[in-house]
User: Fold this.
Amino acid sequence: MAKFSVTPFDRTSFPALYRCADDASSSGQKWYIRWVTINLSLLISGALVGSIGLTDVESKRVVNTIAAIIFFGAVGVTILLATRRWERIWYAGRAVAESAKSLTWKFVCAADPFPSSMSYQDALELFTISLRELLNENTQLAPLLAGPDATGQQVTSHMEGLRNAAIGVKRDVYLSQRVAEQQTWYLQKSADNRNKRNVWFVLLVVFQMAAGVAAVLLVLYPVFPWEAATVFSTLASAIAAWGAMKRYQELAQAYGLAAQELSLIAARAQHVGTEVELARFVNDAETAISREHAMWVARRETK
Assistant:
């Protein structure tokens, strides 16, 4: 049995396709959130400027002109978002990256469809074919995968070493560097999304109440020079749109469920002692993790 030195299975240990897709997804997410933020900011700014009530005709004309320019700017950003579709790159890139990562762990742990009974050469060929099929299913990403890692190895020396390592080594590495790390990540993301959901919900209620109070004040003081109800209602709408985009509640539940499933599967790790048992263990864990991958694919297909 080949000797294998246990070192962290970091980003460079995975195939070049994973790294390129991960970079494409991060870039798509960055640009999408940036321009959505700009779009919502323009809408809020336009509502704020337009809500200023002035009696002087010339001043009113200037204010309304500024508001119109801001709103037309928001229209331009909306068109930009619709044509560039950064959210599709974000979701598709994440789905490809996570699928490539899952295939990698199955390959190094000799789980289906790369069992230990298969020769290394055959397993290597099947692995590269699987990556090619994954790429062919997401051809829209092709122009974005030509990053610095594009010429990197698809099967790294770390992958080869771990596949040839002893069963106990593969089990321990998989448990600590895949299951435990993924479970910790899910728990952190679940708590983070739950907290953010609560914060944005409170802000939504506050601005809705403020809009109602402002409307009442306009009834009592109809000559008040600021139509605050318009501003607060726009803020509430912006928060609702942001929450719909980020899906805090949905993500909190999905990540929490995935963490619990992994915890139940990890409890069986101490009983894994053969190649067959290891393969079953890895396949069960990757199936649980893949449910989160499926969510990314579903979000991509609805966009």
Residues 11-138+150-301 form one domain. The mean pLDDT is 86. Residues 167-220 form the longest helix (54 residues). The chain has one domain: 11-138+150-301.
